[in-house]
Amino acid sequence: MYTHENYIWGLVAYGVGFLLMLPFFLLIARALIPWRIPRDLVGLLIAAVLLTPARAYTDMYFLAPAWIVAAFELAQPTSIEGPARALTPMAVVFAVLVAVYIVGRALWQYFLRGRARQN
């Protein structure tokens, strides 16, 4: 069985792996999608899918990436909810990221227009 230290090191390795792959994903998105807003939404979707945690087992407290839990639940369901217990957090995280993106973009535009009026 894994110890808490092994679990933490696994999280660190997964996070470093994500940070190393993020520029590659963004480069591919930039090459395939010319418009900025859809490209940003694809980047948010990638981040939401890869970084959302879910409980690996219903009787344990260890977390795993939700996309891996969903894949295992699709292959061999262990509970009644099946993959929905991993897909629901991903959808919520994506919705929150999109809301933060919209608010941030609106505030950015507001402050840019405010600077243009001052000049």
Order of helices and strands: HHEEHH
Distance N terminus to C terminus? 64 Å
Total separate domains: 1
Could you estimate the helical fraction of the residues in percent? Answer: over 70%
Number of strands: 2
**Rounded average pLDDT:** 87
The backbone outline, from C-alpha atoms, is: elongated
Beta content comes to 5-15%
Q: Please, how many helices?
A: 4
Low-confidence stretches: none
Explain this structure.
It is a single chain. Strand 1 (53-55) and strand 2 form a beta hairpin. The chain has helices spanning 4-32, 36-51, 66-75, 84-118, and strands at 53-55, 63-65. It has one domain (4-118). The chain has 4 helices and 2 strands; from the N terminus they run H-H-E-E-H-H. The relative contact order is 0.09. It has 119 residues and is mainly alpha-helical. The chain is elongated. Helix 2 (36-51) runs antiparallel to helix 4 and helix 3 packs antiparallel against helix 4 (84-118). It has a two-stranded antiparallel ribbon.
